[in-house]
Amino acid sequence: MSFTPKELIGRLAGTGQGLPEPARYVVAYSGGLDSTVLLHALVRAVGSFASPPPVLAVHVDHQMHPDSAAWAAHCERFAASLGVRYECRRAQVALDAGEGPEAAARTARYVILEHMLETGDWLLSAHHENDQAETLLLNLMRGSGLAGLAGIGPSRPLGRGWLLRPLLGIPRAELERYADAEALAWVEDPSNAESRYDRNFVRHEILPLLQTRWPAAAGSLRRSAELAAEAAALLAELAEVDLAAAGEPAKLDLGILRALPGPRQRNLLRHAIRRLGLPLPPATRLNQVIEELAAAREDAQPLVAWPGAEVRRYRDHAYLLPAQVSPGAPDGELLEPGRAPLSLGVGRGSLALEPAGGPGIRPSVVESGLRIAWREGGERLRPKGHAQTHSLKKLLQDAGIVPWQRARIPLLYSEERLVAVGDLWIASEFVSEEGYRVRWLERPALF
């Protein structure tokens, strides 16, 4: 059966089942065959609607090829011929971020697309059956688990809207027939023919070879991915049950984790890492988390890290964290009332001073500004409500502040006198009945 706009309507309804009606259809339009067919068929399809949502074609120019500007111009002309609003955004692809060029371009593209989405938008991507088959084969070669073998998902939340892939069940050959029948023109990126890239090697060398023996190979692989997705969903449900007992994704009770069988331990850890939006570790690192953190003695503070993430242990809990960076600026900068929050650096949040509406830092101390510094050791403080002066080290230990955050808590000084420790304590000698409080916005987890 040939692909038609009517079939696209049915696939949109199936892929978007349970979602609110789209405020707009936003098409990720590269100018290639697949997205050209998707945009053309979508415009034909919504033409039959009584009140069709607006259609927006978005082209991301990665600026990685000399002809990219010409491709963008082609896309603009084609969108205009369909009477569709068109936008082009230029991406800055970070080729030194530890990813290959394909992955780096994809990352940059989705950042742009996500930021463009408005509330209730449906972003439509033209991934098709052959793309799904290629992804499954690639993930098999990478040793992926069930989530990887599930391949490309049909839909997921993205920014303020949703990402849908209504063509996943359509073979590329049907899209080619549609394009030929409608005399559509599209652009060809020459890099798509270069087999030095893994996906292109699978596309041009491996999948065609499989299809000479099994003509329906792409469809069979796509169905296998769907079955893997079902199994992965069941494992996610089981992980949610275990997570409810073990705590929260960022802080897992190691006693609960140890009591689970090995496969459920790994399933829970992978699920928690995904929930936090952190990169998944290789299998060796995942096993290391279980062997080194769960089995370590109580007073040990082991660390297991991989690019972009790390797991630490404290008081028989495993903490799942983004990769930590050393505190930098604004050491020595002044925090003043009435000013915008002062950033503490990536992942550290920001500080502001605001009226406390009651006891707080004495206004005369605040008016000249409070100098920010990081902990060096030896600091002492008598917090409001305490009878004695204590070392800051003891205060942090008694409060249960995790060790790796203790050097990252901003200290506020008036000249050389310690006034406050983040938003945790104010020195009693600087407290007045009506004063200021320290507000630590987006504070990282300390306990």
Rg, Å, rounded? 28 Å
Count the DSSP helices: 14
Total beta strands: 23
Instruction: Supply the CATH superfamily name of the largest domain.
Output: HUPs
Task: Provide a descriptive summary of the structure in words.
It is a single chain. With 447 residues, this protein is an alpha+beta fold. Helix content is 39%, strand content 20%. The chain has helices spanning 5-15, 33-46, 68-82, 101-116, 129-141, 146-149, 172-181, 198-213, 217-246, 254-259, 262-275, 283-294, 363-366, 392-399, and strands at 25-28, 55-61, 85-90, 122-124, 155-158, 161-164, 247-248, 251-253, 303-306, 309-314, 317-322, 334-335, 342-343, 350-355, 360-361, 370-373, 380-381, 390-391, 411-414, 417-421, 425-426, 431-432, 436-441. A hairpin with a 3-residue loop joins strand 20 and strand 21 (425-426). It is globular, with a radius of gyration of 28 Å. The N and C termini lie far apart (59 Å). The model has no long low-confidence stretch (mean pLDDT 89).
